[in-house]
C-alpha cells in the first residue's frame, strides 16, 4: 500500500526505491490553488433517452467509446479531499471526458483538464501530472450502470472509462 503525504513540503515520488509496490502520493493544500468559474457547458441531451440514442448512433459510427477521468486529491483541514466538478447544480463528477479516436489516455486527459480546469483560456501553460491508473469501469450495454469489470456476457463493450491518479 502506498503512503499519503500532505503539505507544501511534500517531496516527489522516489523512483530509486526497489519496492515497486510502495508508491507515494503527494497532495497539497487547497489554499495553493486558485478557483474561479467558467461558463457553463451546454449539454447535448435533455433527457436520458436522448443520451442513449446519441450513444447508440456514436457507437454505430465510431465503436467503443473511451473516456478518462482524473482522480485529483487536495488537502483541506489536514484531510485528503477529492476534487469534483458540479454539473447543473444536481450532481458531481470527476474532471475529464471522452477521448478522440486514436488519442492516448494521457494526451486526452491533459486536453480535458486544460479545458475544464485551466485558469487561462488556451490552457497551454498548464502542466498536468498524470499518474498510474487507479481503476477502469465498463458499460456493456446502453444503460446508466457501469461495472468495475467487463462482464463475461459482454462480447462488445460499449464504453470504457479509466481513472488515473493526477495532480495539479
UniProtKB/TrEMBL annotation:
One GO CC annotation: mRNA cleavage factor complex
Q: Keywords for this entry?
A: mRNA processing, Nucleus, RNA-binding
Family annotation (Gene3D superfamilies): Nucleoside Triphosphate Pyrophosphohydrolase
Q: Name one GO molecular function term.
A: mRNA binding
GO terms under biological process = mRNA 3'-end processing
Cross-referenced Pfam families? NUDIX_2
Localization: Nucleus
Instruction: Tell me where it mainly resides.
Output: nucleus
Free-text function comment from the UniProt entry:
Component of the cleavage factor Im (CFIm) complex that plays a key role in pre-mRNA 3'-processing. Involved in association with CPSF6 or CPSF7 in pre-MRNA 3'-end poly(A) site cleavage and poly(A) addition. NUDT21/CPSF5 binds to cleavage and polyadenylation RNA substrates. The homodimer mediates simultaneous sequence-specific recognition of two 5'-UGUA-3' elements within the pre-mRNA. Binds to, but does not hydrolyze mono- and di-adenosine nucleotides. May have a role in mRNA export.
Q: Which family does it belong to?
A: Belongs to the Nudix hydrolase family. CPSF5 subfamily.
From the Swiss-Prot or TrEMBL record, give the protein name.
Pre-mRNA cleavage factor Im 25 kDa subunit
Amino acid at each position: 500500500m502506498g503512503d499519503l503525504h500532505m503539505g507544501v513540503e511534500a517531496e516527489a515520488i522516489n523512483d530509486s526505491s526497489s519496492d515497486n509496490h510502495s508508491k507515494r502520493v503527494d497532495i497539497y493544500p487547497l489554499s495553493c490553488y486558485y478557483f474561479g468559474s467558467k461558463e457553463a457547458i451546454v449539454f447535448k441531451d435533455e433527457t436520458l433517452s436522448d443520451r442513449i440514442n446519441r450513444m447508440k448512433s456514436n457507437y454505430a459510427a465510431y465503436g467503443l467509446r473511451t473516456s478518462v477521468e482524473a482522480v485529483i486529491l487536495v488537502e483541506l483541514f489536514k484531510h485528503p479531499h477529492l476534487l469534483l466538478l458540479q454539473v447543473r447544480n444536481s450532481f458531481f463528477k470527476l474532471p475529464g471526458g471522452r477521448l478522440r479516436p486514436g488519442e492516448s489516455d494521457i494526451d486526452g486527459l491533459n486536453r480535458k483538464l486544460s479545458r475544464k480546469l485551466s485558469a487561462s483560456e488556451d490552457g497551454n501553460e498548464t502542466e498536468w501530472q498524470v499518474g498510474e491508473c487507479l481503476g477502469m469501469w465498463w458499460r456493456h450495454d446502453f444503460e446508466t450502470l457501469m461495472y468495475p469489470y467487463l462482464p463475461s456476457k459482454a462480447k462488445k463493450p460499449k464504453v470504457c472509462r479509466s481513472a488515473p491518479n493526477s495532480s495539479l
